[in-house]
Amino acid sequence: MQTLVFSTNNKHKLQEVQALIGSKFQLKTLEEIGCFDDIPETGATFEANASQKSHYIYERFQLDCFSDDSGLEVDALDKEPGVFSARYSGSRDSEENLQLVLKNMQGKEDRTARFRCMISLILDGEEHFFEGSVEGEITYTKSGSEGFGYDPIFKPAGYDKTFSEMSGEEKNKISHRGIAVQKMVTFLKSVTMD
Q1: Which side of the chain, N or C, has fewer Cβ within a 10 Å radius?
Q2: 190 membership: H or E segment, kind and range
C-alpha cells in the first residue's frame, strides 16, 4: 500500500478523502508525520494556497503529498468568502463564519453560489493540479446535521436538500472535493502499478 500525506489535520476532510481513495493508498495526516507547523496560506487563489501547502510538506519531509484548498463563492457577495472561507469571520469558528454569510445575504435575492476545490499533488517531485466545483445556492436558514463548515446552508443545484442533509456517501458523489479527489485518484491509478 502506498503512503500519501494529506496536508491536513481536519478529521472530517480526512474521512471524506479516505472514503474516496479506497484501500490502495494509506493517507497520513500532518500530525502522523510529525509536522506541527502552522503552514502558511498566503495565496490569492485556491490553486496558490494548495500549491504552497504541498510544497511546504514535500520540501521538509520528502514525502509524496497532496493539499487541497477549497471554499465557498457567493455571487451576491462578490465571490466572498472565497479563499477566506475558513476564517471569514476573523476566526476559524465555522459557526461564526456561516452566520456571517447568512447575515451578509439578508435582503439579497440572488442566492447562487458554488463550492470550489483545488488539489495540488506532488508525486516524485512533480506537481499536478485537480479541480472540482459544484454549483448551488445559499439557503435562508441552516438545515441538517451532517458535514461541516458551510454545508448546512448550501443546497446543490438539482437537489432539494443541503449538503448537511445528505449522507457522506451521497455528498461525496457530487461535492467539489469529491470531484477533485476522483480526478486525482484516476490519475494516481494511471501512474502507479498494482
Answers
A1: C
A2: helix 176-191
Catalytic site includes residue 69:
yes
Quick check: 193 pLDDT over 60? no
Angle, CA 36 vertex, CA 119 and CA 20 arms, to 5°:
35
pTM of the model: 0.89
Q: Where are the beta strands (DSSP E) in 80-160?
A: 80-81, 112-123, 126-138, 154-156
The CATH number linked to 176 is: 3.90.950.10
- In three-state secondary structure terms, 45 is coil
Name the active-site residue from 68, 69, 75, 78. 69
Residue 169 has pLDDT above 80, yes or no: yes
How far apart, in whole angstroms, are the C-alpha atoms of residue 19 and residue 185? Answer: 11
Range of the domain at 144: 2-191
